[in-house]
Design a protein that fits this description.
Length: 466
C-alpha cells in the first residue's frame, strides 16, 4: 500500500513548541524513557492511568483545597471506579482563577452587536449572581436550569451555580415546551434562568410565552430570572416567581467557592431522546475539568493569548467544552444566531475582526459553507487562525479538500469525536501530528479506544464499532 501524503503537517519547530511535546518530554524524563512518539505516549497513558492523570493534573494546574488519598480505587469496576478520593475542589474556582483585565468573553449576535467582559468583570458578575442565588436559598446539590441562548449571562449563571456546589443544566431556547419539560421535568430545578427571546436568521423570536408554560409545569421552581436580550425591559408579569436579571443580582463582591469531592455533580446533560424521553447523564466536576483541560491544553495547544470559538448552542456538550477554556485563561468567543445570516461570510468576518485562533464548528456547517460557494481565504485575513475543529458527524474527505483549498493552507484541521455521555472526546486533534484526508488525527490520551468487529476483535481499514 503506497504511503499516504498528508494534507498538512507542522514544521519540526512548531511541533516542538507545543504543550503536547513538552508534556511528552516530561513523561520521558520522569517515567518512560522508551516513549519516542505519540503512539507510545498514548499507550503509556492507557497502561498507567494512576500516573498519567496526576501528571495531567499537575501540568494543567488544577486548583484544589485538599489533595487525594488515592488516585484510583476499584479501577477494574465499570461503573464503580473511584478517582482522586479525598480531593476537595470547586469547578467554578478553576474557571475563575484569572481576575485581570485580559478578555474572558467576547460575544456577538447575528446583527453584529458585541459585548466584551474581562476576567475581572466576569468574576464580579458571577459574585453578584452567586450572592443572589445563596440569598434565595440555592445550596449544594440543588439544580439550576438555563433556557438560554449562547450569551455571556449563560456562562455567568453556570459559574454562579457551580461555585455554590449546585448542578447546572441547560437547554437551547429553540426547544419547544415539551422538549424542555422532558428534560427539566426530571431534574426538578429550584431556579430557572431564561431570556425573553433570541434572534435567528433575521427574525426575533419571543421566548416568554414558552417560559410561562414551562414554569407552570415545574412546581419545584422557586425563582425565574429573565435576562433581557430582545427587549431592554422584558415584561415578566404572568410568569410565576419571575424577576428581571438586574433586579435579582446582589451587591456581593466576593465568591465563596464551595469545596466538594472530585466526583460531585457539576452538569446534567441529556441523551438525544430518539428512544423515548431523553435520559439524564450526570457529570462530575473533577472528571469534567481534568478531561477538558487535557483536551484543551494538550490536544488543542490552547494558551492564554488564544481566542477560541465554537459554533454551538447551550444544549450541545461543545458549549460545556468551550467554556472550560476559561480555566486556561484564553478568550472564549461566543456567537448566537444563524451562521448564514445575513450571508455565509458572517462567522469569517467575526474570525478576522476578532483574531480568532481556534475555530470550532460542525461537519455539516463546513459542507454547507462549501455549497454556498464562499472562499474565506479570498475575502478575509485569517492570519491568526491556526486550527479548525470539526465534530457532530464525520468530516467528509471533500470537506478536508475544501478547508485547505478555500479557507487556509497552513492550518491544523482536526475532526474530533466524542459524546454527551463523556462530555468530552474519544478521538482528537494533535498539534504534533500530520492531517490526512478523511481521518481523525489520534485517540485521546488516557482513552482506551479501539474499533471492533462483531466478534469483538480489533479491526483496521474496515468498518466496525467504536
Amino acid at each position: 500500500m503506497p504511503e499516504k501524503k498528508p494534507l498538512w503537517k507542522p514544521s519540526p519547530e512548531r511541533a516542538a513548541k507545543t504543550r503536547m511535546a513538552q508534556f511528552m518530554q516530561h513523561i520521558r524524563r520522569e517515567y518512560a524513557s522508551h516513549v519516542s512518539d505519540y503512539a507510545g505516549l498514548h499507550r503509556w497513558s492507557v497502561e498507567r492511568p494512576e500516573i498519567f492523570w496526576p501528571e495531567v493534573w499537575a501540568f494543567c494546574g488544577v486548583k484544589a483545597s485538599h489533595t487525594w488519598d488515592k488516585v484510583l480505587v476499584d479501577g477494574d469496576r465499570m461503573p464503580g471506579a473511584k478517582w482522586f478520593t479525598g480531593v476537595r475542589l470547586n469547578f467554578a474556582e478553576n474557571l475563575l482563577r484569572f481576575r485581570d483585565e485580559h478578555p474572558a468573553i467576547i460575544f456577538r449576535d447575528e446583527h453584529g452587536r458585541r459585548t466584551e467582559l474581562s476576567y475581572a468583570e466576569l468574576y464580579a458578575q458571577v459574585a453578584k449572581l452567586a450572592g443572589a442565588m445563596r440569598a434565595m436559598g440555592v445550596q449544594k446539590n440543588d439544580r439550576v436550569a438555563g433556557f438560554m441562548p449562547n450569551r455571556p449571562e449563560t456562562i455567568i449563571a453556570m459559574l454562579a451555580a457551580t461555585s455554590i456546589g449546585a448542578i447546572w443544566s441547560s437547554c437551547s431556547p429553540d426547544f419547544g415546551v415539551t422538549g424542555v419539560l422532558d428534560r427539566f421535568g426530571q431534574i426538578e430545578p429550584k431556579l430557572l434562568i431564561a431570556t425573553d427571546g433570541y434572534y435567528y436568521n433575521g427574525k426575533t423570536i419571543d421566548s416568554l410565552e414558552r417560559v410561562r408554560k414551562v414554569v407552570d409545569e415545574l412546581p419545584s421552581l422557586e425563582r425565574v430570572v429573565v435576562v433581557p436580550f430582545v427587549n431592554e425591559t422584558p415584561v415578566v408579569d404572568g410568569i410565576r416567581n419571575a424577576v428581571r436579571w438586574q433586579d435579582f443580582l446582589s451587591d456581593e463582591t466576593e465568591i465563596e467557592f464551595e469545596q466538594v469531592p472530585f466526583d460531585h455533580p457539576v452538569y446534567i446533560m441529556y441523551s438525544s431522546g430518539t428512544t423515548g424521553v431523553p435520559k439524564c447523564i450526570v457529570h462530575g466536576g473533577g472528571g469534567t475539568l481534568l478531561q477538558h483541560l487535557k483536551e484543551l491544553v494538550l490536544h488543542t495547544d490552547l494558551h492564554r493569548h488564544d481566542r477560541i470559538f465554537y459554533f454551538t448552542t447551550c444544549g450541545w456538550m461543545m458549549w460545556n467544552w468551550l467554556v472550560s477554556s476559561l480555566a486556561v485563561g484564553a478568550t472564549v468567543m461566543l456567537y448566537d444566531g444563524s451562521p448564514f445570516h445575513p450571508g455565509p461570510e458572517g462567522l469569517w468576518k467575526y474570525a478576522e475582526e476578532e483574531g480568532i485562533s481556534v475555530f470550532g464548528t460542525s461537519a455539516k456547517y463546513i459542507a454547507a459553507l462549501e455549497k454556498s460557494g464562499l472562499k474565506p481565504r479570498e475575502q478575509f485575513d485569517l492570519s491568526q487562525l491556526r486550527a479548525i475543529l470539526s465534530t457532530g458527524s464525520p468530516l467528509l474527505p471533500e470537506s478536508f479538500d475544501y478547508v485547505y483549498r478555500d479557507i487556509k493552507e497552513d492550518l491544523q484541521l482536526s475532526s474530533i469525536s466524542g459524546g454527551t455521555d463523556i462530555i468530552s472526546c474519544f478521538a482528537l486533534g494533535n498539534p504534533m501530528l500530520p492531517v490526512y484526508k478523511g481521518e481523525l488525527q489520534c485517540r485521546g490520551l488516557g482513552m482506551a479506544v479501539d474499533v471492533f468487529d462483531e466478534n469483538g476483535h480489533p479491526v483496521r481499514e474496515t468498518k466496525g464499532e467504536l
